[in-house]
Amino acid sequence: MSGNDEHGSGNRFDGEARNVVQAQHIEVMHVHGGSGPPEPPSAFPLAANRFHDRRTMLERITEVVTSRDGSGPALFVVAGLRGVGKTAMAVHWGSTQRDRFPDGLLYADLGGGLSRRGMGGGLGEAVTSLLEQLGVSGDHLSYSDQGRLALLRSRLARRKVLLLLDDARLSGEVERLLPTSPHSVVFVTTDGGLTEVGDFAGRHDAEVLVLGGLPEADGLALLRTLAGDETVDRDPDGALRLVRACGGWPLAIRMAAGRVKVRRRGLGELAAGLEAARRVPRPGPAEEGIVQMVGDAAYGDLPDDLRRAYRLLALHPGGDRPTVVPGGPTSTVEFGSGAAAALLDRPAPETDHLLDSLVDRHLLDADSGRYAFHGLVRAHARGHAEPEGDTAVRRVAEWYLRMAAEADLAINPYRPTTGPVFRELRGRPSPYGEGRDAVQRALGRLRLEHRNLAAVVHAAGDRGWHDLAWQVCEALWGFYFSLKHYDQWIDTHRIGLRAAQELDDPGARFRMGIQLGRALYETKRFEEAHEVLAGALHAATAPLDRATALEFIGRAHLDAGEPERALEYFLQARDLETRHDRPRGVAINLHHLGRAHLALNTLDEARDCLERAQRLFAEIPDPYNQARVLTTLGRLHLTAGDPGAAMPVLETALEIMRTQHRTYQVAEITESLSEVAALTGDPDRSETLRQAAIMAYDEVGSLRADELRDASA
């Protein structure tokens, strides 16, 4: 069966929900909206869940925001070395002022402005993530970065949000993400590497807040919170010495407090050890050296099982991306207990105990079942040699593969797959259950883990684990096809295709070629798409795989504005589907043929293909694709200058799409009906339908709503 966005199946969705992914058939998912307003997003990071004082700066932020009457957002650049609490301060202020931001608390990790490996950093992924936080995803997203940026600006223009842009280095990236709303607040954190920070602040009237170590009183208060009043009161002089030995650095104080709390060391004894260690020269910034020094002392206190856990958990591949920071990757990475158990090769109860013990020592952050190292702590843990290194990474990579495959099968249990993991899992009870709720749960799990999964693809590619690299890509099909993370999709699948080629596995080469080719032609990268899809066609051995490849090549030509070339591929695909008695595949390619003929203005041929496709979809039955064909048929009647014939066809399509809860398609058809009403001399109905289309486009976050508003202004 050809795999594209027109395949239907009996995997039906009934009822209403926000941003549901409905599995239509084989390789197809569609995102569509439901009814009712979504909850305001709150996307702040896990690792910033502890904060203490900075009262003067917090009061200054509130004063600026309260008194501001400018035309743009209130903008704060928070600068300071890693571990000083920049993100924590922004999160703390936003959380205490949440009522100011009824439209949400948004977060984007810019990854130092250096990541282009599709693992969650970089501008393209940042924009996609912010749009998802605003409830915009899937087919409603533009294929281009510029289109997504325009949509993001449109969504933010009339909203009151707090936007936290974390770990920024390139001022140009930050400027492109700034909202225009005067009711919003933006925090930009940087470790001091933000380019042209002075000019940037001047251009945007930004407040620059420079964070250093905590004042002694605040450092003592933080130590008291973490280690307990009794401990500090028992040795106040030792407590003050310890805060001074930590340089007032919040992260170092936290780690030192963990040693005090768990090992019951005296504050004075611990301070003396740190004072001696500070006299030993260390490379890099002095404050970061303090964290390394406290980390060395904490590591020395750990029992053997916790030392092993500390080292192995830091090897989690999430966050491994290009960086100029000395000492290797320091990005925050979040993971769950399942991934931790795989890394440690320990059963769940023992893993939970080890995780809790590291959290108690303030070496690991935890919230709602997720765990995270601070980047500096992770770098310290990775500095200790680990003989199990690659073995542990392989274990967690295999765990992620299985998790992703289970989720992908829940999203669409009917699509053909190639990897061995799918053969193992298919037919087993799904951990996500069945039906529409299973689709939502599985997609939610992949949303949570997609950065880690992309990192696994990179880790497998770097280590020559070709079998894992392409299989993880295959298991990400449902996520990428549904939610359109194009940067990540293309980046990972290029690795997956190379892995399949290294293995010289025709099935893997076909699967990777089809999945990568789809992303490439959807993003208008037609030259590369044709090269990749030609390889998929060459690798295809089964007739229906060849039909899929031929159809995708045809679609690439059609999307590139080459309908005449597209015809020959759709004809070949249709003939293969006909010979193998696949009516749905025949209908899909008839619809494509109708679209191609419509583009060529050969209207009789287009009408014949579309009417045959419509009848086939009605017989299957496949109401969604029947409505899609009717929509195209309505456009044909409009092109032929017959709006009267277009009206009943489009009204039938509209009713079907409403029953299918396809809000975006409802908007498109309603817009076409508005045009029909205008052409048939009913301007009042045309305006009513136009407003209804705008409302539907707004519901799914489509930029088309603003385009229609502007057209009537």
Automatic annotation (TrEMBL):
Q: Which domain of life is it from?
A: Bacteria
Q: Gene3D superfamilies from the entry?
A: P-loop containing nucleotide triphosphate hydrolases, Tetratricopeptide repeat domain
UniProt keywords (A-Z) are:
TPR repeat
SUPFAM superfamilies, per this entry? P-loop containing nucleoside triphosphate hydrolases (SSF52540), TPR-like (SSF48452)
Q: Which Pfam families match?
A: TPR_12, TPR_16
Q: Where are the TPR repeats?
A: 547-580
Name the UniProt record assigns to this protein:
Tetratricopeptide repeat protein
Q: Which organism is it from?
A: Actinomadura meridiana
